[in-house]
Amino acid sequence: MSPVTDRTRWQWLAAGRASRRLVLVVVFVALLLDNMLLTVVVPIVPTFLYTTEYEATNISAGPAPPALKVPPFSSVFSYFDNTTVTILGPTIAPELVTGTESSRPPQPPASSPPPPSSCPEGEEFLANENVRVGLLFASKALVQLVVNPSVGLLTNRIGYHTPMFVGFIIMFLSTVMFAFSGSYTLLFIARALQGIGSSFSSVAGMGMLASVYTDDVERGNAMGIALGGLALGLLIGAPFGSVMYEFVGKSSPFLVLAFLALLDGVLQLCILQPSKISPESTKGTPVFTLLRDPYILVAAGALCFSNMGVAMLEPTLPIWMMQTMCSPKWQLGMAFLPASISYLIGTNLFGILGTKMGRWLCSLVGMAVVGVSLLCVPLARDIYGLIGPNGGLGFAIGMVDSSMMPIMGYLVDLRHTSVYGNVYAIADVAFCMGFAIGPSTGGAIVRAMGFPWLMIIIGVINIAYAPLCWYLRNPPAKEEKIAILSQECPMQTKSYTAQKTLRDFPLTDDSDVEAENAE
């Protein structure tokens, strides 16, 4: 290869590493894969556990006692008529069969028709499965909740590139483990491992975007695009998983995701510099100091409660559909398709509109719509009845997410040191609390009170929390806090600006007086 070609390649690589757009592409792809893996298991796990545990147990247990069931095509001997009668069907009780039809009065038809053959059996197993599936889904968020603060501190010390690549490696291992896990325990471990990788990717990715897009408007647009990757992952994940599981097999969607994760790793090696240690030049504000900021807590609460609604739906809605709608496997994932499409529209639309109409207002309206949509979910009688509530839910969550993520960076710029690792660790912790508390408590509430009451509880919580977003309308800056302190304390304060009047050299004794008169 000629030196000119080699030099051109290195120049292109250097230009790519300096490009903010390519950094945005890397974060977009990382969030896309993370959330595809997050949602691809939603339609797979409930039916997979039902197939491998309930049906396998019933088959291995053998036929039921004679008082309840008889094996199909069993022969019954009649003492009244010396013939052998063949009985069809697994649920017919063995009785003495006579040769005449008049020996027994005809039975009236049942008041209610038997359930369709597609409805799963084992109501008690499905009720218990709500809790188990909820805990499995929550394990990812619980682990991510614990790891996030450490990742935030790590990014402040070594930069964003290395944690981003570590997140890719862990995510790839988790995806492969999902593909070949055949028990609840292994699925639980794979889900928890995904939480570690997701923590590295999301905290480092959002912090990287906030550091390269310093203008507030540009940052809002960039994060809207990055959250579009998150939305696209949610859009593709559940329908992709349900269709692949139905027609190809359980391992197929995870192997496809593992291949895409490898491509993402190659992209990160080309664009980022994982071996480069680039700590922040300025020491960031400690996590506990940020947690004492009421405005950051309000923004984090909005992220938590708005996402808690869809987190509660993930483990409970497929099982509720299996019980009430007798839905086939492919419909369990397709039910989330309207929410994913509308979330994709909402994040991209309000990433731009949020700066014009006010991000606090977008969040307030979004949380109110989340509550109303959740209240409408139990009213659905088939999968088509879920289109409106799920569509409104996804659109409203997109409004909240695309508004709160830039507000987090803006609050740090306004009230703290402009280092973003810790504040986006808090944002991710809030997101994970919703996905940890939601599935783990949602299954228990469904078992105790029923699915409709679960939707009422979380819907009312979102509507009640929405007015708190008003406090984010005009948060005070550092200079305003200094002015308040100067009124309470009899001490002189002096503010400094970034740009000073330039003075000629050499300086004379009267130069300070001249500079003050000039100001």
UniProtKB/TrEMBL annotation:
Keyword terms, alphabetized: Cytoplasmic vesicle, Glycoprotein, Membrane, Neurotransmitter transport, Synapse, Transmembrane, Transmembrane helix, Transport
Chain ranges of the Major facilitator superfamily (MFS) profile domain: 67-477
Membrane-crossing residue ranges in chain numbering: 21-45, 166-190, 196-213, 225-248, 254-274, 295-313, 333-353, 360-380, 392-412, 419-438, 450-472
Biased composition range(s): Pro residues: 105-118
One Gene Ontology cellular component: terminal bouton
Main localization of the protein described in the UniProt heading: membrane
One Pfam family per UniProt: MFS_1
Recorded topology in the membrane: Multi-pass membrane protein
Subcellular location: Cytoplasmic vesicle, Secretory vesicle, Synaptic vesicle membrane
Reactions mediated catalytically: serotonin(in) + 2 H(+)(out) = serotonin(out) + 2 H(+)(in); dopamine(in) + 2 H(+)(out) = dopamine(out) + 2 H(+)(in)
Keyword flag Ligase: no
Gene Ontology biological process terms, A to Z: aminergic neurotransmitter loading into synaptic vesicle
Listed GO MF terms: serotonin:sodium:chloride symporter activity; xenobiotic transmembrane transporter activity
Residue span of region Disordered: 98-122
Domain of life of the source: Eukaryota
Similarity comment: family membership: Belongs to the major facilitator superfamily. Vesicular transporter family.
NCBIfam families: 2_A_01_02
Official protein name in the record: VMAT1 protein
Upper classification of the organism: Eukaryota, Metazoa, Chordata, Craniata, Vertebrata
